[in-house]
Amino acid sequence: MISVIQKLFLGNSPIWYKKTIVTFLLINPIALILFNSFGLNGNFIVGWMLLLEFIFTLALALKCYPLQPGGLLAIQAIVLGLTTTKGIYYEIEHNLEVILLLIFMVAGIYFMKNLMLAIFTKLLLKVNSKINLSLMFCFSAAILSAFLDALTVTAVLIGVTIGFYRIYHTVSSGKNFSDLSHNYNDNSSLSSVSIEDLEKFKAFLRDLVMHGAVGTALGGVCTIVGEPQNLLIAKVAGWEFIEFFIRMAPVTMPVFVAGLCTCYFIEKFSIAGFGSQLPATVRNVFNDFDKYETENTTLEQKTELFIEMCVALFLVLALAFHVAAVGLIGLAVIILLTAFKGITEEHNLGEAFHEALPFTALLAVFFAIVSVINDQQLFLPVITYVLSQSLEVQPPLFFVANGFLSAISDNVFVATIYINEVKAALDSGVITREQFDLLAVAINTGTNIPSIATPNGQAAFLFLLTSSLAPLINLSYMRMVLMALPYTIVLSIVGFLSIIYLL
Question: What's the rounded mean pLDDT across residues 22-33?
Fold first, then answer.
């Protein structure tokens, strides 16, 4: 019985990984009792232990999906009294828009995959320069994220990249483009040459996806609608769309330019794993695919593409003018596409939700850990220290502190804590309105820019890490950290200096 439980526990994960998770679960209650018995703040210390353990599960997402080990840690946090179900529900309720976005918008993008694949295939074939293609991915993602939503843009990137991978893998396995039943996770039918080209193609796709993911952060920081915390900060500060953009511009514009320059240099000099080129054999496959699609597209398929184009236009306009919450717009996209494309069977609808729902569950677990951070005030020492400093050094310190905390926690949570503390200081007369505005800019840019350092720092990064794409292209937690490192260093320095000299 025990041996069977050991085998079943966390499935096919390595034995050492299973033992590590069990060790975490055993150590936490023991540590809590010991620290409290010695007169120390055991809840605070074990809270930090839980946070680091959860980050460990994210870092090894390719060994085991983080939902299960992270969920066990979250359940234990409740049992140990480090948080409550009420606190977790509050965090989930506070981030309901993000959850609805994931459930509906990602599914909506799924029904647009043919249009997206057609557009990006043309781009792939028309733009021969890898540097230009990388800049295009980064720039486009930034512009779209400034007016739409980073998670939506990331969903598009994931969908398109999986489509690219499926096409090459299908052909390399000796099958026709139209074979939709092909299992692209199985490499057994590939030759050694095809596998070699596939590995090069994986590296090429990793580059483009990471450039696009960083682009979502570059654009997301610029506008009131770019990230959820932007809207929160703007609401507290009383800023409208234009005022928000203008106040952020002294920091966001230099960072945006620096981001594009970084993209150029890391591709040109093959820094941090970038610089992979598209193999000639793979390009030939996509040329053949493009010809095949052109010659074999039926009137029905052309009509479906037209419908997708119309709904895509609706999506852009609805998001740009914020006619409703992003998740509800995503639901409208699902309804429109499935209604006019005749997709009415439940099992066909269900496929669209396969990508989003596991991550939605993981995000709920993440909010449980955020609830621990909140209840145990894990970040309070940092906040207290920053607010105790002189007024002139507070903005750059806020930028650094926010960047550090946002890299390991939820951006919205960090922004909420800081902006509320600053608003309280303003209301009590501790700081002036001018100082408040400076600190609000520092808080917003701090929660957006340095947080690209880790996948858990940006919801879009976390979504990418835990998506079905990540194992296909060997995109692990540490690889994402390494590939984001040049961006993190350059953008953080430029942002820091901009706060000091341009604000």
Answer: 94
Angle between helical axes of 150-172 and 130-147 (0-180°, round to 10): 140
Question: Would you place residue 493 in the very low, low, confident or very high pLDDT band (cuts 50, 70, 90)?
Answer: very high
Asked whether 491 and 450 are in contact (CB, 8 A), the reply is yes
* Percent of the chain at pLDDT exceeding 70: 97
Please give, one letter per residue, the 3-state secondary structure of 472-485: HCCCCHHHHHHHHH
Q: What is the DSSP letter of 104?
A: I
Per-residue pLDDT at 151 exceeds 70: yes
Three-state SS string across 45-90, please? HHHHHHHHHHHHHHHCCCCCCCHHHHHHHHHHHHHCCCCCHHHHHH
- CB neighbour list of residue 68: distance below 8 Å, 6 or more residues apart: 10
Count of positions (residues) in the chain: 503
Q: What is the pLDDT of residue 180?
A: 60
pLDDT at 495 over 90: yes
Tell me the C-alpha distance between 298 and 202, whole Å. Answer: 31
Decide: 274 and 263 in contact? Cβ < 8 Å. no
Assess contact for 223 and 146: CB atoms under 8 A.
yes
d(Cα 30, Cα 107) in Å, to the nearest integer? Answer: 43
* Bigger pLDDT: 186 vs 247: 247
Distance separating alpha carbons of residues 290 and 293, to the nearest angstrom: 5
Going from the C-alpha of 194 to that of each of 169, 181, 200, 206, 263, the distances in angstroms are 9, 20, 10, 18, 29
Q: Which amino acid is at 85?
A: T
Answer whether residue 73 shows pLDDT above 80.
yes
Question: Residue range 130-147: average pLDDT?
Answer: 88
Cα-to-chain-centroid distance, residue 238: 28
Largest CA distance in the chain: 76
Quick one: residue 377, left, alpha or beta (phi over 0 = left, psi -120 to 50 = alpha)? Answer: left
**Which is it for the CA torsion 395, 400, 405, 411, positive or negative?**
positive
